[in-house]
Design a protein that fits this description.
The structure holds two protein chains of two kinds.
Chain A lengths: L17 H16 L5 E2 L13 H10 L5 E6 L6 H14 L2 E2 L8 E5 L12 E5 L13 H9 L4 H14 L10 E3 L3 E3 L9 H4 L5 E6 L4 E5 L5 E3 L26 E5 L6 E5 L2 H9 L21
Parallel strand pairs in A: 2-3, 2-4, 4-5, 5-8
Antiparallel strand pairs in A: 1-9, 6-7, 6-10, 8-9, 11-12
Helix pairs in contact in A: 1-2
Chain B lengths: L7 H17 L9 H7 L1 H11 L4 H10 L4 H12 L17 E6 L50 H7 L27 H10 L2 H12 L7 E17 L4 E17 L12 E8 L3 H14 L15 H7 L2 H9 L6 H21 L1 H8 L1
Antiparallel strand pairs in B: 1-2, 2-3, 3-4
Helix pairs in contact in B: 2-3, 2-4, 3-4, 3-5, 4-5, 7-9, 8-9, 12-13
Classes of the chains: A alpha/beta, B alpha+beta.
Chain lengths: 302, 365
Amino acid sequence: MTSPRETIEGYNFAYLDEQTKRMIRRALLKAVAIPGYQVPFASREMPMPFGWGTGGVQVTAAILGPADVLKVIDQGSDDTTNAVSIRKFFERTAGVRTTTRTQEATLIQTRHRIPEAVLREDQILVFQVPIPEPLRFLEPRETETRKMHALEEYGLMHVKLYEDIARHGHIATTYAYPVKVAGRYLMDPSPTPKFDNPKMHMSAALQLFGAGREKRLYAVPPHTPVVSLDFEDHPFEVTQFDKACALCGAEGVYLDEIVLDDSGERLFACSDTDFCGSRRADGHVGAQGATPAGRLIAGEDD
Amino acid sequence: MYVAVKGGEKAIERAHRLLASRRRGDAAVAEIDPTQIEAQLRLAVDRVMGESSLYDGGLAALAIKQARGDLIEAIFLVRAYRTTLPRFGYAEPVETGSMTIRRRISATYKDMPGGQILGPTFDYTHRLLDFALAAANEPPAPVQADALSPQAMPRVCDILAEDGLIEAVGDAEAPVGDLTRDPLAFPAPRDLRLQNLARGDEGFLLSLAYSTQRGYGRTHPFVGELRFGEVEVEFFVEEVGFAVPLGTVELTECDMVNQFKGSDTAPPQFTRGYGLVFGQAERKAMSMALVDRALRSGELAEEGSAPARDEEFVLSHSDNVQATGFVEHLKLPHYVDFQAELALLRQLRREFGKARPADIAGEAE
């Protein structure tokens, strides 16, 4: 965990001015009150591009306090370029403590993954969302999709999933797999793999979603049912890996496939780098992980 | 032995350091100064001010320098700075009718009160590269008119309106929205549509406007008037009880006059398309006016659909800062989702192979 740093001058705590934060918090309160409902908000231009996490960054900026400990992940990893950039942004503008340890964080901003470790009530997970509307690729018009949500008319999505089954014998959606929240609103879980969908269900942690370019916020309050759409005869299935992590030996976790050489040699390792590193620190070793743990994914910055 | 990717932070830092050095370029060549950009690349500065919605030539010039001349990047820089500025209120509406005219032309009348004033324009120049410009080259001083008596220059559309030949403008007292403070909802009223277009990407609006001329939502336009010059900006101060001038801004305004055969509820009369942009930006102002008019097709009960008439399509895709961000975000890692797709593709191919073993076998050879 890093200690608080000097912040840059001329900007408010966590970049946004307090009026803007209040506007976002109001929208967040509405989002929490209506689980899964997309609340429009006056998204601001941020100093990073739209599509690179401005929605998540605005949510984080609006709820971040000086006592928070922030973790930022992208693809499950703390070390991907965009996660580094966003973490640095809050170090510089808010001076808060940051961490790569899921257990230590009070606020976790993520893109494309939910940590493997079960989150607690005193933690908040903030998702970066590119397209908040789960019906968008079935109906491009906002005027239409808002009507469909208002009428709870989600037949189109069921037809899409049915067509998958008719064509392939199973549902062929692997990420951004649609969920129904608290039995009412159809929601896009953001482009997390469907492997992570069950983690959203009845989670103890508050889950907030920010889509900056599309100017929408939504939320899953703690202990809220989140159900992946399916059919009685074709129940929702979690992606299964027939391998364990090559570094820490974990099973039942999401794995990255890493191409090792040009003859097609591959290695599968935990996508959640903190999870993998913690396991190896505890002495777990995978098939190809027989090296000093510190040198591998959990290695210190050089 | 596999060692996972690490050191992103250091790599980013070094990439940015390299970028700064590339921006400077050959150190033997004199460094460009933002004041030179502001004075000599004025149309680039104008575009950045317009699409970033911040009238500040110095900041725009600095952004252009920092962005290595990439105007969309410069617009982005200024927009991100703009959001951090406190708002202390909204100015009074500017009166373009009393503009200090630098250029003013009409394509609908040969002459009108105030006359045609060509001003600084590329129009009628031959687009021949001027090799003399490669060296320092002082152009001759502009010719001063003898005594250009300050003449009233009423807007051409106001002249048409006196005869009732053109539709009335909307309610001038109606409250005006602000899409930077409230998210855009559809259907959007015209004030918000115009704000969206004024901030919109010049290239996107140009192509849409062009498409209306080629039959995708035809509007039968005439340039009623195109004017460029300075207008005074006033701000109503509660404490003193009247509006005080804040300074002047340069604006380009375009009134497009469009044919309209009338509908069940409206008599045949000319209709308006309107464009207003910071600085000298005629291509943008004209494109904006054409697209504004095309977007009014629903209200005027015109039949047929076209991209330029589709409000959600136009307004959702006009902002180049949003567009470039989302297109370029594809550079970010997507390997978690890609992994899920890989697994699915392998499964689908296995199933396909079971159903039609001959095809897959043939492919393998």
